[in-house]
Amino acid sequence: MIIFLTLVYVAILIFLVKFKVIRLTLFWKLSPVIWMALLMVSLFLPMQFWAPAGSAVVAQYSVPIVPNVSGQVIEVNVKPNESLNKGDLLFKIDKTPFIANRDQVLAKLELAQIRLADAEALVKTNAISKSRVEQYQAQVKQYAAALVGAEYNLAQTEVKAPADGFVTNLALRAGTRVASFPISQTMAFVEDGERLLGAQISQSYLRYVEPGQSAEVTFKLYPGKVFNATVDYVVKASSAGQLSASGSMVAPREITPVPFVVRLTLEDKTLMRTLPAGAMASVAIYSTTGTSTHIIRKVMIRMDALMNYVIPF
Hints:
Blueprint: H1 2-18, H2 26-50, E1 53-65, E2 71-76, E3 89-93, H3 96-123, H4 130-155, E4 158-160, E5 165-168, E6 177-178, E7 187-201, E8 214-219, E9 227-234, E10 260-266, H5 269-274, E11 280-286, H6 294-307
Antiparallel strand pairs: 1-7, 1-11, 2-3, 2-6, 3-4, 5-7, 7-10, 8-9, 8-11, 9-10
Protein backbone atom coordinates (compact mmCIF):
# COMPACT_ATOMS: atom_id res chain seq x y z
CA MET A 1 0.00 0.00 0.00
CA ILE A 2 2.85 2.39 0.79
CA ILE A 3 4.41 1.63 -2.59
CA PHE A 4 1.09 2.23 -4.34
CA LEU A 5 0.57 5.61 -2.66
CA THR A 6 4.17 6.55 -3.38
CA LEU A 7 3.73 5.70 -7.07
CA VAL A 8 0.62 7.89 -7.12
CA TYR A 9 2.61 10.68 -5.54
CA VAL A 10 5.44 10.29 -8.08
CA ALA A 11 2.92 10.33 -10.94
CA ILE A 12 1.43 13.59 -9.63
CA LEU A 13 4.93 15.01 -9.17
CA ILE A 14 5.90 14.17 -12.76
CA PHE A 15 2.70 15.80 -13.99
CA LEU A 16 3.42 19.01 -12.04
CA VAL A 17 7.03 19.13 -13.24
CA LYS A 18 6.03 18.48 -16.88
CA PHE A 19 3.58 21.36 -16.88
CA LYS A 20 6.08 23.56 -15.01
CA VAL A 21 3.92 23.98 -11.95
CA ILE A 22 6.99 23.26 -9.82
CA ARG A 23 10.72 23.15 -10.50
CA LEU A 24 12.56 19.85 -10.05
CA THR A 25 14.86 20.88 -7.25
CA LEU A 26 16.80 18.61 -4.91
CA PHE A 27 13.94 18.81 -2.42
CA TRP A 28 11.39 17.53 -4.94
CA LYS A 29 13.78 14.78 -6.04
CA LEU A 30 14.00 13.57 -2.44
CA SER A 31 10.34 14.20 -1.69
CA PRO A 32 9.17 10.61 -2.58
CA VAL A 33 11.41 9.30 0.20
CA ILE A 34 10.07 11.94 2.58
CA TRP A 35 6.54 11.03 1.45
CA MET A 36 7.11 7.34 2.23
CA ALA A 37 8.53 8.15 5.68
CA LEU A 38 5.59 10.44 6.38
CA LEU A 39 3.10 7.76 5.38
CA MET A 40 4.85 5.19 7.54
CA VAL A 41 4.93 7.36 10.65
CA SER A 42 1.55 9.08 10.34
CA LEU A 43 -0.63 6.30 8.94
CA PHE A 44 0.78 2.82 8.58
CA LEU A 45 2.46 2.38 11.96
CA PRO A 46 -0.58 3.68 13.91
CA MET A 47 -2.86 1.62 11.67
CA GLN A 48 -1.29 -1.61 13.00
CA PHE A 49 -2.57 -0.68 16.48
CA TRP A 50 -5.89 0.98 15.59
CA ALA A 51 -6.92 -1.34 12.74
CA PRO A 52 -4.95 -4.57 13.21
CA ALA A 53 -5.05 -7.35 10.65
CA GLY A 54 -4.17 -11.02 10.60
CA SER A 55 -4.90 -14.44 9.17
CA ALA A 56 -7.98 -16.41 10.15
CA VAL A 57 -9.31 -19.92 9.78
CA VAL A 58 -12.71 -21.58 10.04
CA ALA A 59 -12.64 -24.32 12.67
CA GLN A 60 -15.12 -27.01 13.56
CA TYR A 61 -15.37 -29.44 16.46
CA SER A 62 -14.43 -33.03 15.73
CA VAL A 63 -14.66 -36.18 17.83
CA PRO A 64 -11.98 -38.89 17.62
CA ILE A 65 -13.87 -42.18 17.46
CA VAL A 66 -12.36 -44.73 19.84
CA PRO A 67 -14.43 -47.86 20.58
CA ASN A 68 -15.21 -48.72 24.20
CA VAL A 69 -14.32 -52.38 23.54
CA SER A 70 -11.55 -54.08 21.59
CA GLY A 71 -12.12 -56.55 18.80
CA GLN A 72 -12.21 -57.22 15.07
CA VAL A 73 -14.28 -55.00 12.80
CA ILE A 74 -16.77 -57.07 10.80
CA GLU A 75 -18.72 -54.29 9.09
CA VAL A 76 -18.20 -50.60 8.23
CA ASN A 77 -21.54 -48.86 7.76
CA VAL A 78 -20.59 -45.32 6.66
CA LYS A 79 -19.13 -43.59 3.65
CA PRO A 80 -16.75 -40.62 3.71
CA ASN A 81 -18.38 -37.17 3.90
CA GLU A 82 -21.88 -38.66 4.08
CA SER A 83 -24.32 -36.80 6.37
CA LEU A 84 -25.14 -38.76 9.52
CA ASN A 85 -27.57 -38.30 12.38
CA LYS A 86 -26.78 -38.82 16.03
CA GLY A 87 -27.02 -42.55 16.81
CA ASP A 88 -26.42 -43.77 13.24
CA LEU A 89 -24.28 -46.90 13.07
CA LEU A 90 -20.62 -46.28 12.16
CA PHE A 91 -19.19 -49.80 12.34
CA LYS A 92 -19.61 -53.16 14.05
CA ILE A 93 -17.16 -55.21 16.08
CA ASP A 94 -17.41 -59.00 16.24
CA LYS A 95 -19.71 -59.62 19.19
CA THR A 96 -19.10 -63.38 19.57
CA PRO A 97 -16.75 -63.15 22.61
CA PHE A 98 -19.01 -60.58 24.25
CA ILE A 99 -22.10 -62.78 23.82
CA ALA A 100 -20.17 -65.68 25.34
CA ASN A 101 -19.10 -63.53 28.28
CA ARG A 102 -22.66 -62.32 28.85
CA ASP A 103 -24.07 -65.85 28.75
CA GLN A 104 -21.39 -67.04 31.15
CA VAL A 105 -22.22 -64.29 33.65
CA LEU A 106 -25.95 -64.92 33.20
CA ALA A 107 -25.48 -68.61 33.99
CA LYS A 108 -23.56 -67.78 37.16
CA LEU A 109 -26.28 -65.33 38.18
CA GLU A 110 -29.03 -67.90 37.68
CA LEU A 111 -27.09 -70.48 39.70
CA ALA A 112 -26.51 -67.96 42.48
CA GLN A 113 -30.22 -67.10 42.54
CA ILE A 114 -31.14 -70.80 42.86
CA ARG A 115 -28.66 -71.28 45.69
CA LEU A 116 -30.00 -68.17 47.42
CA ALA A 117 -33.58 -69.43 47.18
CA ASP A 118 -32.54 -72.82 48.61
CA ALA A 119 -30.56 -71.17 51.41
CA GLU A 120 -33.48 -68.92 52.37
CA ALA A 121 -35.69 -72.02 52.65
CA LEU A 122 -33.13 -73.93 54.73
CA VAL A 123 -32.39 -71.05 57.09
CA LYS A 124 -36.03 -71.11 58.23
CA THR A 125 -35.48 -74.66 59.53
CA ASN A 126 -32.10 -73.71 61.01
CA ALA A 127 -30.43 -76.18 58.64
CA ILE A 128 -27.84 -73.54 57.64
CA SER A 129 -26.63 -70.35 59.22
CA LYS A 130 -27.85 -66.89 58.24
CA SER A 131 -24.32 -65.97 57.11
CA ARG A 132 -24.64 -68.53 54.28
CA VAL A 133 -27.74 -66.71 53.03
CA GLU A 134 -25.87 -63.39 53.16
CA GLN A 135 -23.03 -64.99 51.17
CA TYR A 136 -25.41 -66.05 48.39
CA GLN A 137 -27.07 -62.64 48.44
CA ALA A 138 -23.67 -61.04 47.87
CA GLN A 139 -23.00 -63.43 44.98
CA VAL A 140 -26.32 -62.54 43.35
CA LYS A 141 -25.48 -58.82 43.58
CA GLN A 142 -21.99 -59.44 42.25
CA TYR A 143 -23.18 -61.39 39.21
CA ALA A 144 -26.05 -58.95 38.58
CA ALA A 145 -23.52 -56.12 38.41
CA ALA A 146 -21.25 -58.20 36.18
CA LEU A 147 -24.22 -58.86 33.89
CA VAL A 148 -24.83 -55.12 33.51
CA GLY A 149 -21.19 -54.69 32.51
CA ALA A 150 -21.32 -57.63 30.10
CA GLU A 151 -24.46 -56.31 28.41
CA TYR A 152 -22.90 -52.86 28.17
CA ASN A 153 -19.79 -54.27 26.47
CA LEU A 154 -21.99 -56.24 24.09
CA ALA A 155 -23.90 -53.09 23.15
CA GLN A 156 -20.61 -51.25 22.55
CA THR A 157 -19.76 -53.60 19.67
CA GLU A 158 -21.98 -51.31 17.61
CA VAL A 159 -20.18 -47.95 17.44
CA LYS A 160 -22.58 -45.09 16.71
CA ALA A 161 -22.34 -41.44 15.70
CA PRO A 162 -22.02 -39.20 18.79
CA ALA A 163 -23.79 -36.28 17.08
CA ASP A 164 -25.03 -35.05 13.72
CA GLY A 165 -22.10 -34.77 11.33
CA PHE A 166 -19.96 -36.80 8.98
CA VAL A 167 -16.88 -39.00 8.87
CA THR A 168 -13.91 -37.84 6.82
CA ASN A 169 -10.68 -39.47 5.67
CA LEU A 170 -12.20 -42.91 6.26
CA ALA A 171 -9.64 -45.72 6.11
CA LEU A 172 -11.25 -48.29 8.44
CA ARG A 173 -12.02 -51.63 6.78
CA ALA A 174 -13.63 -54.90 7.81
CA GLY A 175 -11.01 -57.20 9.30
CA THR A 176 -9.16 -54.43 11.12
CA ARG A 177 -8.60 -55.05 14.80
CA VAL A 178 -9.46 -52.01 16.89
CA ALA A 179 -8.54 -51.34 20.49
CA SER A 180 -10.17 -49.48 23.35
CA PHE A 181 -7.21 -47.17 23.77
CA PRO A 182 -7.35 -43.34 23.78
CA ILE A 183 -4.56 -42.83 21.22
CA SER A 184 -5.85 -45.56 18.90
CA GLN A 185 -8.45 -43.64 16.88
CA THR A 186 -10.44 -45.46 14.24
CA MET A 187 -11.90 -42.47 12.41
CA ALA A 188 -12.44 -38.72 12.69
CA PHE A 189 -16.03 -37.61 13.15
CA VAL A 190 -16.75 -33.96 12.30
CA GLU A 191 -19.73 -32.47 14.10
CA ASP A 192 -22.26 -30.72 11.90
CA GLY A 193 -22.67 -27.95 14.43
CA GLU A 194 -21.30 -24.51 15.15
CA ARG A 195 -18.33 -23.38 13.09
CA LEU A 196 -15.80 -21.05 14.64
CA LEU A 197 -13.89 -18.20 13.00
CA GLY A 198 -10.63 -17.35 14.75
CA ALA A 199 -8.09 -14.72 13.71
CA GLN A 200 -4.47 -14.56 14.86
CA ILE A 201 -3.44 -11.05 15.92
CA SER A 202 0.09 -10.18 17.03
CA GLN A 203 0.43 -9.28 20.70
CA SER A 204 1.85 -5.84 19.87
CA TYR A 205 -1.32 -4.85 18.01
CA LEU A 206 -3.89 -6.39 20.33
CA ARG A 207 -4.24 -3.65 22.94
CA TYR A 208 -7.21 -1.83 21.37
CA VAL A 209 -9.18 -4.91 20.29
CA GLU A 210 -12.41 -5.32 22.27
CA PRO A 211 -15.65 -7.31 21.97
CA GLY A 212 -18.31 -5.74 19.79
CA GLN A 213 -15.92 -4.01 17.38
CA SER A 214 -16.57 -4.32 13.66
CA ALA A 215 -14.33 -6.35 11.37
CA GLU A 216 -14.06 -7.39 7.74
CA VAL A 217 -13.10 -10.79 6.37
CA THR A 218 -12.10 -11.98 2.91
CA PHE A 219 -11.91 -15.72 2.23
CA LYS A 220 -9.70 -17.54 -0.24
CA LEU A 221 -12.84 -19.43 -1.25
CA TYR A 222 -14.54 -16.18 -2.31
CA PRO A 223 -11.96 -13.97 -4.05
CA GLY A 224 -12.98 -10.39 -4.59
CA LYS A 225 -15.57 -10.43 -1.78
CA VAL A 226 -15.39 -8.84 1.67
CA PHE A 227 -17.75 -9.90 4.46
CA ASN A 228 -18.72 -8.02 7.62
CA ALA A 229 -18.01 -9.53 11.02
CA THR A 230 -18.00 -8.65 14.72
CA VAL A 231 -15.42 -9.33 17.43
CA ASP A 232 -16.79 -11.77 20.02
CA TYR A 233 -13.84 -11.93 22.39
CA VAL A 234 -10.09 -12.25 22.66
CA VAL A 235 -8.92 -15.66 23.88
CA LYS A 236 -6.94 -14.72 26.99
CA ALA A 237 -4.50 -17.61 26.85
CA SER A 238 -2.11 -19.40 24.53
CA SER A 239 -0.02 -22.55 24.63
CA ALA A 240 3.08 -20.45 25.42
CA GLY A 241 1.68 -19.70 28.88
CA GLN A 242 0.50 -23.19 29.73
CA LEU A 243 2.08 -25.01 32.67
CA SER A 244 1.81 -28.79 32.89
CA ALA A 245 2.34 -30.87 36.00
CA SER A 246 5.65 -32.72 35.98
CA GLY A 247 8.34 -33.98 38.28
CA SER A 248 11.01 -31.77 36.73
CA MET A 249 12.43 -28.46 37.82
CA VAL A 250 11.73 -25.34 35.78
CA ALA A 251 13.87 -25.42 32.65
CA PRO A 252 14.76 -22.29 30.63
CA ARG A 253 13.18 -22.11 27.21
CA GLU A 254 13.05 -19.70 24.36
CA ILE A 255 10.10 -17.33 24.73
CA THR A 256 8.56 -15.85 21.62
CA PRO A 257 5.59 -13.47 21.44
CA VAL A 258 3.09 -15.81 19.79
CA PRO A 259 -0.13 -14.27 18.44
CA PHE A 260 -3.41 -14.44 20.33
CA VAL A 261 -6.66 -15.68 18.84
CA VAL A 262 -9.61 -13.35 18.36
CA ARG A 263 -13.01 -15.01 17.98
CA LEU A 264 -15.20 -13.42 15.28
CA THR A 265 -18.80 -13.84 14.17
CA LEU A 266 -19.82 -13.35 10.55
CA GLU A 267 -22.97 -11.34 9.92
CA ASP A 268 -23.85 -13.72 7.07
CA LYS A 269 -25.03 -16.74 9.08
CA THR A 270 -25.82 -18.76 5.96
CA LEU A 271 -22.27 -18.36 4.69
CA MET A 272 -20.84 -19.37 8.07
CA ARG A 273 -22.85 -22.61 8.03
CA THR A 274 -21.56 -23.54 4.57
CA LEU A 275 -17.88 -22.71 5.01
CA PRO A 276 -15.76 -25.86 5.29
CA ALA A 277 -13.47 -26.33 8.27
CA GLY A 278 -10.01 -25.11 7.35
CA ALA A 279 -11.17 -22.27 5.09
CA MET A 280 -8.50 -19.56 5.24
CA ALA A 281 -9.14 -15.83 5.38
CA SER A 282 -7.63 -12.41 5.98
CA VAL A 283 -9.18 -10.26 8.70
CA ALA A 284 -9.17 -6.54 9.50
CA ILE A 285 -10.45 -5.31 12.87
CA TYR A 286 -11.53 -1.71 13.34
CA SER A 287 -11.09 -0.39 16.89
CA THR A 288 -12.80 2.70 18.28
CA THR A 289 -9.44 4.52 18.34
CA GLY A 290 -7.70 6.17 15.40
CA THR A 291 -10.59 5.91 12.99
CA SER A 292 -8.67 8.03 10.50
CA THR A 293 -6.51 5.00 9.67
CA HIS A 294 -9.49 2.72 9.01
CA ILE A 295 -9.88 3.87 5.42
CA ILE A 296 -6.38 2.64 4.59
CA ARG A 297 -7.09 -0.74 6.16
CA LYS A 298 -10.39 -0.99 4.29
CA VAL A 299 -8.56 -0.39 1.03
CA MET A 300 -5.91 -2.97 1.95
CA ILE A 301 -8.43 -5.70 2.85
CA ARG A 302 -10.15 -5.13 -0.50
CA MET A 303 -6.83 -5.38 -2.26
CA ASP A 304 -6.29 -8.70 -0.47
CA ALA A 305 -9.71 -9.84 -1.70
CA LEU A 306 -8.75 -9.02 -5.30
CA MET A 307 -5.33 -10.62 -4.94
CA ASN A 308 -7.07 -13.88 -4.00
CA TYR A 309 -7.89 -14.21 -7.71
CA VAL A 310 -4.20 -14.45 -8.63
CA ILE A 311 -2.57 -15.69 -5.40
CA PRO A 312 -4.42 -18.79 -4.18
CA PHE A 313 -2.06 -19.50 -1.27
